[in-house]
Structures are given as structure tokens and as C-alpha cells.
């Protein structure tokens, strides 16, 4: 078999979550997995291309148009030529903006290829506008400086005390002007900053990534991109406090009543403020009208453009073209993507209020594939379909959204202990489960603590119920639900039934039904009923500063060990459990078990925490990552305050470590491998303790 080299790690992770399904074709809200003549059970798609498929997969009107465009030889590459289709798209968009935003001012339209590119274009335009403002300020300061020099030369003006202080003891005009120029260059050279909301997501390119709040995505690349500050949606005024403390000022020399005075001029360093009307990746958090009003007021005070990110919410998904229009959030810029391409064209748009538009931007920003005739024609058709029959598509989306929301709310009402919230608007819904990081089931607890609970649930819903869903990127306990405007009642009812079973599994901590669909085996589970495996949580050890915190990194791979680890798995046969371990290899590191207090043979207090790794009992390591996984577990243990790290004999054997290279005494199974070190001797540990912790 040929080695897979296209995002191999992600593909392996999909296998661990039971999501490694390939699809042969799709239509509407249905996807058909590959198989004999495509005959496998069809899947109902609630992912919807992460919001790209308002009209569903391969809508017949759009497919017919695409075929006609290709058959007609429509050019995709006609750069620097007249683009009539683009002008029609811009005109159609302005009809919509005048209606929904209640403004007579038109918006200029810039074309791009993806949502993140549209955000980057917005950032570039906002910065260019700021640079032009800086240029205007610099010209004004320079004109005033020339006037001061001339008046001093002619002897028609004198220096004020504050100006004389800057000029030095000799009150030299050149010294004064040089000092002011130096200070102004420093103030006006400050790097621009953007404000964005906590929980927001605006893309993963170099610039847009810095405006994405999730530190997992952003921090590894923080040295590359723009500077951003994040403020809570309910406290946007924190931006004003920050600017008030950080505001740089230029010095302006002006002649007033024949006296040269020094005036401070605020230097614009905030380039823009980004906000999503509904945070998709952040957990489907909906802005309120009050929050929208306060954000707008902050932008007015900062004199910076409000950039409204409608990439996921725009083009009908919430029952209107702009979700922001429903809450009174009127932007200076808008970014659009996803559904404006009809699920066929990779295109995006930046709308800029005409009074804010910098025409020079068109000479400084370009894209090879943007504004091509094919994509523009598809977008024009999408806009026509949305606006047809007085906006029937919007009304249908709103009605279907109400039906979906009602079904989800019924599930929440019956499982209030398991479902934390249902959020969203229209056909963008979020279904949030209660935090499972303290779950009684070790398997469920592990998925929650490692951030994979949403993916595990998605794998279960796909394999067991034929429902395709995904969690949000920054809120792993929240499933994002984004079907097309034509989603049927039957599909919504099946979604509710699947979610009900998930809720029963979580309520009863029955990991068997959650694990079995992730094994990839075709055999049915030994039972389909949900059984109660709840137990009183085992209290952790009380505080004991004298206790030595020891981490024990243990393999967890044999069927018997897995059954002891989580009793809900007891009825799964050996082959199924081995399949679970094999498919989990890409994400084999599990959350640590609750700590246990014990005493060594010498009477010393020890707090022992097991860090399990799902390891094939035969020692198979096809990806060659086991040693790195052991090292990663050791680093995690050190980071959480464990002064001693002990690796099990099997893991030492499989990774080739040498226990004789360490100074720690102890029976077999508790010698430290080289490279991890230890601060002090934890004493003798009972060899049977690790096995007991898995019981």
C-alpha cells in the first residue's frame, strides 16, 4: 500500500475518533460513503461544510450553471480585464446592504478566495487607511514645524516655556525641531494593533490567526503576525482602558499669539475591531443587541473601523442575509465566504463602506484566482436564489431553524444534567454537553480532559446513527449543527434520537456504546441498551506538603486491563478492545487517573498518579511515536508538579530505556528511565500498586 503523505497525522486521528470515512458523492443534506457501487448506508450531513452549504451539496441549479459555464469555456484567468460578473455581484450585494443595514451608503467590494483571505484583506485595508491617516497627521505636523522655523527666523515669534525646555539650554530652534521630530518618529512608528472578541475565530493564515482567540492555534505563531488584544463581548470598554493607558502622542508645534506652543496629538495605532455576530468556532455564542451597541460605541470612540465577520453566518444561514443586522451591529467592513460560493466556488468577499474605502488598495492588493468569472457567476446565482420570491429562502431557513431548535430544546429539557445549553440562531445551532472532565467513567473522563470528547461523540453518531456532526474548534463539549435550508423533519428527528442516546450514555457513564463504534469493526456490540455505571466519585488525597508526588507512566493495552480500567467495557471481546487500542494509537496519551495516597516500605508518604498510554500489548508501534509519547507524558507529569516520574517495565522495554542509568532505588517496575531525572529519592514503592490502581 502506498504511504499516505497528505496530512497523515490528521488522517490517523480521524481513525481514532471513528471519523475515517470516505465519501463518494453527496446531494442535499445526504452523503454517500464509498463502498460497493456506493451502496453503503447514506449519512445525513449536519456539518454542512462548516457553514458553506446553505443550499446543500450540489444543488441542481448551481450544478447546471457550473456545467454551462465550463461548457461555454468561461475564462478563469483574465486578470486585469473588465469583469462584468464581478460588477453584477457588487450591485446585488448593495441592494441587500441597503435593505438589511438600513443605510444609503454603498459598499465597495473586494474579492478573495477564502474566509481567512477576506479577513486578511480587511486587515490590510484597515492598516492602509491608518497609514494614510498617519501620513495626513505627519504632513500637518511638518507644515506647522516649517511655520515655526520661519517665524523664529524672522523674529516674529518666541518660544513658550515648554518649547524652550525641549530646545535645550541655548533655546536652539534646530535642537527643538530635531527633538520633536525624534519623538514623533517614535510615537508614529508604533506597531498597529487590532481588537477582537474573546472566543472569536477569524482564520488560520498568518495575519488572521493572530485575531483568533484560541491560544492552541495562535500562540505557536505569535511572532509572525499582527498584534491583537482580546476583550470580552460583554465588556468591550476594556479596549478603551487599554488605549487610554497606551496611547502614543505626537508633539505639534503651533504658533498662537506669536508664541510657539507644544500641543499633544493622539497618534492612531488601533487599526480595527473585529467581531462575529455569532461565534461559530467559539461555541455558537450569539451577541446580544446591547453588546452590539456597546461594541459600536467603542469603535466610534477609538475612531477605528468595525469589521464584522459574517463568513460563517452570512448569506442566509440565520434567516437573514446578515446575522448582524438582526442585532443592530452595522459594520464599516464585512467579510463573507462559505455559502456565497454555493458549495461549488471557492470565493470570498470584503465589503468596505464607501466613506472608509481607500482606492489605492486596489493597486496594493491582488490575488491570482480572485474575481474570476466562474466564481462570480456562481455567487451571482446564489444571491439571486436567496432573494427570489421576496426572500423565500430566508423565511424557509428561519422556519427550519425554529424546528431544529425546538427538537434540541426538547432533548435538553429531558437531560438537564447532561446538556448544558442549546444556543444559536436559524440554521447555526450549538448543542453543549455538560463538562465530563470529572466523569466516573475513565474513558469518558479521558476524552473530556484531552479535548476529544466532541470528536468521540461525533464518531459515535456517525457510526451508530448515520449522522455527521463535528464539535466547535474552541469548545470541545459543543457540537456545531449547520444543515441546509431544506433539512427535513425526519432528519431532525433522527438527530434528536441520536443525541438522546448520547445523553443516556453520558448520564449512565456507559462507555461501551461510545467505544464500540470507534473500533472500526463491523460486528454489532454485545448489547444496545444503556446500563448504569455511575458510582460515587473517589475523593482525591488531602493536601500533604510532605508527600512526594510520583507519576507512574503505565501501558494500558491488554483487554483485561481495559476492562478493569472501565467496567463498562467488560462485555467487549478481546478483538474489539484490541481494535480500539490500535485505532487510538495516534492519540494514545490518556488523561491521568485520580491520585492515590500510599506509604513506602520506609513509611514515607507518596501521592501516586497513573498516566496511562493506550499501547498495543504486542508492542506494535507502526508510526514510531511511542518513545515520544512516553516523553510527552513525562513532561506533562513534570509540568503538574510530580517530582518523580516512573515508567513501567513494558514501556521501558518497548522504548529501549536503561533503568540502570538512574539513581532511584526500588523494585522492578519503578526504576526511572534515563533522561527524566528525579529530585530526591521517593523511597521504595509497592510493586503491586500500579496494578491495583487499574482495578
Please provide a written account of the structure.
By secondary structure, this protein is α/β, with parallel strands linked by helices. Helices cover 39% and strands 17% of the residues. It contains 22 helices and 24 strands. The strands form six sheets. It has a seven-stranded mixed beta sheet, sandwiched between helices. Strand 16 (419-425) and strand 17 (428-433) form a beta hairpin. The longest helix has 42 residues, at 373-414. The radius of gyration is 31 Å and the shape is globular.
The overall average pLDDT, rounded, is: 87
Main beta sheet strand tally, sense and closure: 7 strands, mixed
Rg, Cα atoms, Å:
31 Å
Structural class: alpha/beta
Task: Figure out the total of helices.
Answer: 22
Based on CA inertia axes, which overall geometry fits? globular
Gap between N and C termini, in Å?
Answer: 40 Å
Q: How large is the share of residues in beta strands?
A: 15-25%
Strand arrangement within the widest β-sheet reads: 4-15-14-13-10-6-7
Low-pLDDT segments: 658-695
**Quaternary status:** single chain
Count the E strands: 24
Classify the helix fraction into a percent range.
Answer: 25-40%
Amino acid at each position: 500500500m502506498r504511504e499516505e503523505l497528505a496530512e497523515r497525522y490528521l488522517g490517523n486521528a480521524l481513525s481514532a475518533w471513528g471519523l475515517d470515512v470516505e465519501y463518494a458523492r453527496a446531494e442535499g443534506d445526504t452523503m454517500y460513503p464509498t463502498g460497493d457501487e456506493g451502496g453503503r448506508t447514506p449519512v445525513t450531513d449536519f456539518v454542512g461544510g462548516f457553514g458553506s452549504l446553505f443550499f446543500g451539496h450540489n444543488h441542481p441549479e448551481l450544478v447546471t450553471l457550473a456545467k454551462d459555464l465550463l461548457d461555454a469555456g468561461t475564462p478563469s484567468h483574465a486578470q486585469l480585464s473588465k469583469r462584468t460578473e464581478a460588477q453584477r455581484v457588487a450591485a446585488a450585494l448593495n441592494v441587500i446592504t441597503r435593505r438589511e443595514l438600513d443605510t444609503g451608503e454603498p459598499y465597495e467590494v473586494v474579492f478573495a478566495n477564502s474566509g481567512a483571505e477576506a479577513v486578511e484583506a480587511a486587515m490590510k485595508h484597515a492598516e492602509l487607511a491608518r497609514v494614510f491617516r498617519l501620513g495626513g497627521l505627519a504632513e500637518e505636523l511638518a507644515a506647522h514645524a516649517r511655520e515655526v522655523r520661519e517665524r523664529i527666523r524672522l523674529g516674529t515669534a518666541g518660544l513658550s516655556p515648554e518649547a524652550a525646555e525641549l530646545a535645550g539650554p541655548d533655546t536652539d530652534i534646530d535642537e527643538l525641531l530635531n527633538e520633536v521630530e525624534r519623538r514623533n518618529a517614535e510615537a508614529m512608528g508604533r506597531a498597529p494593533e487590532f481588537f477582537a472578541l474573546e472566543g472569536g475565530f477569524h482564520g488560520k493564515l498568518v495575519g488572521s490567526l493572530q485575531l483568533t482567540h484560541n491560544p492552541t492555534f495562535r500562540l505557536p505563531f505569535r511572532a509572525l503576525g499582527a498584534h491583537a488584544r482580546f476583550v470580552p463581548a460583554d465588556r468591550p470598554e476594556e479596549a478603551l482602558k487599554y488605549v487610554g493607558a497606551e496611547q502614543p502622542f505626537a508633539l505639534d508645534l503651533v504658533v498662537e499669539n506669536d508664541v510657539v506652543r507644544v500641543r499633544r496629538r493622539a497618534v492612531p495605532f488601533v487599526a480595527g475591531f473585529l467581531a462575529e455576530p455569532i461565534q461559530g468556532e467559539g461555541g455558537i455564542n450569539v451577541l446580544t443587541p446591547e453588546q452590539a451597541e456597546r461594541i459600536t460605541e467603542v469603535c466610534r470612540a477609538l475612531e477605528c473601523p468595525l469589521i464584522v465577520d459574517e463568513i460563517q453566518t452570512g448569506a442566509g444561514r440565520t434567516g437573514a442575509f446578515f446575522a448582524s443586522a438582526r442585532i443592530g451591529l452595522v459594520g464599516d467592513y464585512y467579510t463573507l465566504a462559505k455559502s456565497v460560493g454555493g458549495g461549488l466556488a471557492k470565493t470570498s468577499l470584503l465589503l468596505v463602506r464607501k466613506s472608509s474605502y481607500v482606492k489605492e488598495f486596489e493597486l496594493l492588493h491582488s490575488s491570482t484566482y480572485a474575481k474570476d468569472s466562474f466564481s462570480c457567476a456562481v455567487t451571482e446565482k446564489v444571491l439571486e436564489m436567496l432573494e427570489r420570491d421576496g426572500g423565500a429562502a430566508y423565511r424557509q431557513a428561519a422556519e427550519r431553524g425554529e424546528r431544529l431548535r425546538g427538537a434540541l430544546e426538547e432533548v435538553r429539557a429531558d437531560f438537564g444534567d447532561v446538556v448544558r445549553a442549546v444556543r444559536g440562531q436559524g440554521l447555526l445551532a450549538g448543542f453543549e454537553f455538560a463538562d465530563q472532565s470529572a466523569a466516573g467513567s475513565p474513558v469518558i473522563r479521558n476524552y473530556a480532559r484531552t479535548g476529544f470528547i466532541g470528536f468521540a461523540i461525533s464518531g459515535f453518531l456517525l457510526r451508530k446513527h448515520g449522522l455527521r456532526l463535528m464539535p466547535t474548534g474552541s469548545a470541545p463539549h459543543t457540537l456545531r449543527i449547520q444543515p441546509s435550508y431544506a433539512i427535513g423533519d425526519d432528519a431532525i428527528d433522527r438527530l434528536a434520537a441520536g443525541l438522546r442516546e448520547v445523553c443516556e450514555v453520558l448520564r449512565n457513564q456507559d462507555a461501551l456504546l461510545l467505544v464500540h463504534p470507534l473500533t472500526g469493526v463491523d460486528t454489532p456490540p454485545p448489547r444496545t441498551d444503556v446500563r448504569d455505571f455511575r458510582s460515587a466519585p473517589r475523593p482525591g488525597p488531602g493536601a500533604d506538603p510532605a508527600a512526594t508526588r510520583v507519576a507512574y507512566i503505565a501501558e494500558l493495552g491488554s483487554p483485561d486491563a481495559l476492562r478493569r480500567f472501565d467496567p463498562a467495557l467488560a462485555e467487549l471481546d478481546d478483538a474489539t478492545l484490541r481494535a480500539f487500542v490500535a485505532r487510538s494509537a495516534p492519540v494514545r496519551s490518556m488523561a491521568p487517573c485520580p491520585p492515590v495516597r500510599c506509604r513506602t516500605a520506609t513509611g514515607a508518604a507518596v501521592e501516586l498518579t497513573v498516566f496511562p498510554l493506550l499501547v498495543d500489548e504486542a508492542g506494535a508501534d507502526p508510526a514510531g511515536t511511542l518513545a515520544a509519547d512516553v516523553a510527552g507524558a513525562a513532561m506533562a507529569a513534570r509540568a503538574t508538579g510530580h517530582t518523580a516520574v516512573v515508567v513501567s517495565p513494558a514501556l521501558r522495554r518497548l522504548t529501549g530505556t536503561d533503568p540502570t542509568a538512574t539513581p532511584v532505588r526500588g523494585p522492578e517496575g519503578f526504576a526511572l528511565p534515563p533522561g527524566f531525572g528525579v529530585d530526591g529519592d521517593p523511597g521504595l514503592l509497592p510493586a503491586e500498586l500500579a496494578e491495583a490502581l487499574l482495578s
